[in-house]
Specification:
Length: 175
């Protein structure tokens, strides 16, 4: 290994993904899809965020987007060189596009999204898209089971709520 190779400490990945999961739990508590993100530079968290699409009434308020914006403010530049983004769910195409433009070195995510993920699930904008000006190293599956459980619990509860609401509406109509 040469002196220029980054040192990847998988225990650090688990720690920082745990921090992203803390953010995802905040989203869950607020009724948002439970995704959380943190940006790390030189071993320190420089930004944290959780999904706030419903809270802010903003379709772009994904955890990654909010964390990237806060990280840019923290470093005083739009380039996030020597940074790693940790996010509980594979980034969507919108977020992946923003990630490419911000230029972090790495993206680490918990659970894959085969239907809409843009880091290898559905498409891969982060590692292998030749026309784009930047590529990120991607690590997937870090604390994946915990990330998946949180998402599944959220959507299970949402379906149950809808079912109860529909039942209440039918009961009202019958009265």
């Amino acid at each position: 290994m040469d002196d220029e190779s980054p040192i990847i400490d998988l225990q650090s990945d688990a720690y920082f993904m745990g921090q992203a999961l803390r953010e995802a739990r905040k989203a869950y508590a607020a009724g948002e899809v439970p995704c959380g993100a943190v940006v790390v530079k030189e071993g320190r968290i420089i930004s944290r965020a959780w999904n706030q699409v419903e809270t802010l009434k903003d379709a772009t308020a994904h955890a990654e987007m909010l964390a990237l914006t806060a990280a840019q403010q923290s470093v005083g530049d739009w380039r996030l060189e020597k940074c790693t983004l940790y996010v509980t769910k594979e980034p969507c195409p919108m977020c992946a596009g923003a990630i490419v433009h911000c230029r972090p070195e790495r993206v680490v995510f918990g659970v894959s999204d085969p239907k809409g993920g843009a880091a290898g699930g559905w498409i891969n904008l982060l590692e292998s898209n030749p026309p784009l000006n930047h590529r990120c190293d991607v690590t997937s599956g870090v604390l994946g089971e915990e990330c998946l459980y949180l998402l599944q619990s959220f959507f299970r509860e949402a379906r149950e709520r809808k079912k109860l609401e529909r039942g209440a509406e039918v009961a009202e109509q019958e009265d």
